[in-house]
Amino acid sequence: QVQLVESGGGLVQTGGSLRLSCAASGPTFSSYFMGWFRQAPGKEREFVARITWTGGRTYYADSVKGRFTISRDNAKNTLYLQMNSLRPEDTAVYYCNTHSQTLPWGQGTQVTVSS
User: Fold this and answer.
1) Which of 113, 83, 80 is CA-nearest to residue 96?
2) Tell me: the pLDDT tens digits for 77-96?
3) Nearest partner of 6 among 87, 98, 108, 79, judged by Cα
């Protein structure tokens, strides 16, 4: 079964940028629509972005549209999230999974945006 390992989080000031990565083990990564999700303290996990098998189509939550870009490299079994113009409300633990959240969750990567 595919296992997911997120990385790239950190502490950044408002307006800054980060690039998250999600490394997937297993040979079937390219067969999944993949997504990024986040969970802020005291809140439920929410959808951020998703991407189709080949990366031809992407979808974003309204709160990140125009600031975040999801991409994937199937040859490297890796999913990315480029985050620009970060805001304090983007502070959360970020996770990757299939768009329907069918795989075991990884540990996530913490993103903290200071004001």
Assistant:
1) 80
2) 999 999 999 999 999 999 99
3) 108
